[in-house]
Design brief:
Number of strands of chain A: 12
Order of helices and strands of chain A: EEEEEEEEEEEE
Largest sheet of chain B: 7 strands, mixed
Strand content of chain B: over 45%
Largest sheet of chain A: 6 strands, mixed
Distance between the termini of chain B: 35 Å
Shape of chain A: globular
Helix content of chain A: under 10%
Structural class of chain A: mainly beta
Radius of gyration of chain A: 14 Å
Number of helices of chain A: 0
Low-confidence stretches of chain B: none
Structural class of chain B: mainly beta
Shape of chain B: globular
Low-confidence stretches of chain A: none
Order of helices and strands of chain B: EEEEEEEEEEE
Mean pLDDT of chain A: 91
Distance between the termini of chain A: 38 Å
Strand content of chain A: over 45%
Oligomer: heterodimer
Number of helices of chain B: 0
Largest interface: A-B, 26 and 27 residues
Mean pLDDT of chain B: 91
Amino acid sequence: AQKITQTQPGMFVQEKEAVTLDCTYDTSDPSYGLFWYKQPSSGEMIFLIYQGSYDQQNATEGRYSLNFQKARKSANLVISASQLGDSAMYFCAMREGTRYSGSARQLTFGSGTQLTVLP
Amino acid sequence: NAGVTQTPKFQVLKTGQSMTLQCAQDMNHNSMYWYRQDPGMGLRLIYYSASEGTTDKGEVPNGYNVSRLNKREFSLRLESAAPSQTSVYFCASSDLMTSSYNSPLHFGNGTRLTVT
């Protein structure tokens, strides 16, 4: 079964508007972390933001925020005031388990959402 | 600040040829990983090494071998390349042992491999 689901293969947004990229996850482990990465057309993977399962507040990093709804098992990325440079593929990923368990070594990725920012 | 360095950047192989993808990190991380990226499938874990001297299979290990040469270096070997191994390969590292649970993966720039 898919552990990370990103249902939007492609998204368009006007420059300066906000956009939400969806991510749902599936785990029975009470301890987990959720990550978002950006992959521009040049190909590198850039870490954006992290949310832990026990974190009480939604994570924020500059223009990026994570809308974490634990009961719904969703961890949507919100990009405020979109810029042309935000055009990229965005991946949601999850790490399960405690720090010292084998599964904690692995980051499982979704299939990604291609975001295009329109001028 | 090099971070994670992968070589080569591009490679074309014929079916049945072998090659080794090299990866080195200078961040003193304990854990290292090899992922492959295919269109529409995100990144899938091939092998990982939690610490020097240990390696474990990930989701798609068939057709690959790895070596954790030392703390810095983690190589991926294709013994007999197949067209199904055409992909972009990423090496990554993370400091799970000593830092907090939220340690992200730091990625290299990838190797684009084509097997004809």
